[in-house]
Amino acid sequence: MAGIDTVDVVLVVRGTPMSQQTSLASSLSTLLRVAVRRPPGIAPGATIPEITVTKDLTVDGAWLAAYRRTTGAPDDGALPPCAPQVLATSLHLQILQDARFPLPALGMVHIENVIEERGPIAAGATIALSARVSGHIPHDKGTAFQIVTEASVGGLTPWRSTMTALVRGRRAEGSAPAKERHESAPPRTLLSSSVLRVGEDTGRRYASVSGDANPIHLHALTAKAFGFPRAIAHGMWTLARALAEVDATLPPRPRTIAVRFIRPVLLPSSIVVEAARDTGSAIRLKVTPERPGPPHVLGTIEPLAEAT
Amino acid sequence: MADASRDAEHGAHKPIVYVPIDPPPAEERVRRDARFAGAGERRTRYTLPDTLQTSSPVGFRTRVSLTPEEAQLLLTASSQPRPSSFIPSRAAVTEARLFEEASLTVLSSRQSTNFRGFRSVVVGQDDSATVSELVRAIDPAAPVRDGASHTHLIVSRPYRTPFTMLLTFIGHKPLASLLTVPWRALQKRFAHKDDIPTIGYLQDLHLGILADAFERAAIIASGGRARANVLLAPLAAKNGAASAQALVRLEELCGLTDAERQAGAVVGLIAQIGDVDDESLHLTEPTRTRLGAALLALRSERIQPGVNNEPQAPPAYQRRQQMDVSDALTEQCGRALYNAFSHFSGVSRDEAKRLVLLERIDVLTPGGKERLRGIRKELEEIADLVLKNLPLWADLPTGRALSGNTARGKKAFALAGQRIYVGGLARGEVEAAGLSFSHGVRAFGAAAARAALTAEVSGTTNIPAGCDLLAGICLMAGPVNQNDIGKSFFGYKDLLAGAFPGRDPTSLLVWTLKAKTVADPIGNEEQLMNAKRKGVLVDLRAGPHELVTVRRGRSLAPLRSREGRTSQERAFHAADNFVRDADGKEIAGNRGAPWPTQWANEVVWPASTPSTSSSSSGARP
């Protein structure tokens, strides 16, 4: 599809914590600021400096209910696995807007995400969120970097996410690491397989909850302006919806959720969400188009050894 | 009819026993072994669809090979007497249990795939008490039980499909049709008059079939703790204003809308579910899962057994098999039929045997071949007369769609199988026995379904390697409807007229029982063969959120529609009987996804007493 093989352009715009949601206009103005920034890139021999940002927040019950309605996440009294990342989006934007951050946001794509859930975060908990970027990863299509986000409650850190994003076309120094192939082994036992209809308004609905009002998610017309044939679903929505769908088959916390975003979900469309048990206790997650084609998302969910 | 007399017949019921079906010699054993179409290959009804998009709990299943013990258990669970009373419920009614009950009843009941004639409203203990009062006010003799943990109220509407639309154009005189067709269409729309009587009877037959399913469903979903007390007699206000008012209140409890009333919808069936003081049918979790999955597998293909030995069919469908069903099996089917008719109508078993009219018309009966040939010829003659008399002013503008459909319908009357029966009732005799004809037809539907299940259970027990099944049965109204067109418009006699002279019979259903080892193709939906769909199959069967609502307090909420999601769960999926190709590849979307555990385990209505049972039926661990 027009040479785009990754999903969730990180032009994501979110305002303040979800309990104090910013307006769409405010989101769009932040989007504009991030989009027009022209940083110099990574100089030879240099890398991305460490930038850390933090904030405290209390999750708003109404927001959480809206998030569950949008992603289909069942209510087990804890935050759904992808919710803290949505809550931290304003921190991610702070990093991207930071004068020391050397890469442009335009053309940035979210390619991988690893979430470690060591324990549940109660729905009404006060959370200390931090996001940190440091260094870059050479990539054969450009330059990648990771933002590590942590959610702490009462001095413990039950949730951590490592989001890998790629800035296409700007290759920094260093050799690209060997590709890890998530899909190399065939799944052993199919546990669930369902076809979901993804509505045309999915992007708008999720934008109203996440604050990510990137035009590529909102409407076919605005998405076309950025080279997409139709609007695309947010990558973190696709992941959250898929995890919700296979919830009954997943190992309980503590667990790791590692996914690669391969191809965007065009709106509207139908997707197949499958969970299969691999050797051992790992569950493979696969989101594919209804008609044969490259997958949208591939991932693995496995139990995490308890911290001592 | 008094409550006592309605239940008095049970002592005379004959037990139903499992009868094995001998498999064919090893070299004749074949199975479906369907495969996915290759890239660019034309899809047919014999290839597997690539994906299945559905909220239906059924999906495409392979038969669960039951043990003889399981088969006997299922037959016993399917022929229980009406509960004499309910005891306080020992376990909460969970969301998962309601889903399983719905899956085995309104969501898988035998109906045309393009017709959704039921919706169900489930009410809790308090509302169940109200329902009991209202039904007693409507019909003081109704066999109502108190203390139900919950009750399913079934709203049923007249049978209307593209086929019945076609019927509007049948039986008119050429010129007069310009007036008589619209007149009949108006009568159908606003007065709910049927073109031919047997179309009207379909609504009652479907209710009877559903009634039979409810009794099993209550047992399987509860692990044997509960029973269903099904009130199948048509609810008609018999005692003046108070009775009429009670009927209105009952309809209000179902949330019956004005639009539904205008479309002819009524409260057609009430299934009171409650615990009973009878531990004899305790089902372990694995057993009830297997029985539930086995029942859904029987409703997996659209028609069973169809006629598939057409030239383009794979070799498995062309193979001749030396198979038969024994007289012992058909005897058990007959027993089940008479038991069930007696059970659901309230007449004695002997009376049931007198009222139910059955004619065997297969090739094994004397003169059977000629009789079958005669019926086929007659049905084709009727189809030809219909074609000849279709108003051209309606057929031509639709691109001859009406005549095309009529011609295609001929294939539905192939009447293949080792045992073929035509069944029906005589209105005068039924009414003389104290039953309304509508009630009689409902009881007949229930009896037909139970007889069919008796054969199907034998056909899915001890299935040898290399086989899909050992026998299947098809319950058809098509030939009867075709005959009824002939009766109504062209002067033909009823199919049963020759066998029951002087009794003015009305044939209602045809059973074709066939011993064979290959299951029907699953890709027999028109949409699969539609090139535009590219192998993507959208199931026409309903999901729980489409047909089932749960009343809690004053609110009615669809079952399994939550947080913007609808259920993708296939009921009893733990039995893992999903269709696969020879390499073990599954149809994407066919397996579904379990509903989140915390939602499935949610208590919809609490137990009356603390649980004393270790059974986890209806709840996930």
Class inferred from helices and paired strands of chain A? alpha+beta
- CATH topology of chain A, anyone? Thiol Ester Dehydrase, Chain A
Uncertain residue ranges of chain B:
1-10, 612-616
The neighbouring-strand order within the major sheet of chain B is: 7-8-6-5-14-15
Shape of chain A: globular
Give the number of domains of chain A: 1
Report how far apart the termini of chain A are: 47 Å
Number of strands of chain A: 12
| Main beta sheet of chain B | 6 strands, mixed
Task: List the keywords.
heterodimer, A: 308 residues, alpha+beta, Thiol Ester Dehydrase, Chain A, 22% helix, B: alpha+beta, NADH Oxidase, 6-stranded mixed sheet, 4-stranded antiparallel sheet, 22 helices, globular, disordered N terminus
What are the SSEs and their pairings?
The complex is a heterodimer of chains A (308) and B (621).
Chain A: E1 7-9, H1 24-36, E2 51-58, H2 61-71, H3 83-87, H4 89-97, E3 108-117, E4 126-133, E5 137-139, E6 142-153, E7 156-168, E8 189-198, H5 202-210, H6 215-218, H7 220-224, H8 235-245, E9 255-261, E10 269-277, E11 283-289, E12 297-303
Antiparallel strand pairs in A: 1-3, 2-4, 3-7, 3-9, 4-6, 5-6, 6-7, 8-10, 9-12, 10-11, 11-12
Helix pairs in contact in A: 2-5
Chain B: H1 3-7, E1 35-36, E2 47-48, E3 51-53, H2 68-77, E4 93-94, H3 95-103, E5 118-123, H4 125-138, E6 150-156, H5 162-167, H6 177-191, H7 197-222, E7 226-231, H8 240-253, H9 258-262, E8 266-275, H10 285-298, H11 315-318, H12 327-345, H13 349-355, E9 357-360, H14 368-389, H15 392-395, H16 401-409, E10 419-426, H17 427-432, H18 437-459, E11 471-476, H19 478-490, E12 505-515, H20 526-529, E13 536-538, H21 544-547, E14 548-552, E15 555-558, E16 561-562, E17 565-566, E18 568-569, E19 592-593, H22 597-600, E20 603-605
Parallel strand pairs in B: 1-2, 3-13, 5-14
Antiparallel strand pairs in B: 4-20, 5-6, 6-8, 7-8, 9-10, 10-12, 11-12, 14-15, 16-17, 18-19
Helix pairs in contact in B: 3-7, 4-8, 7-18, 12-13, 12-18, 14-16, 14-19
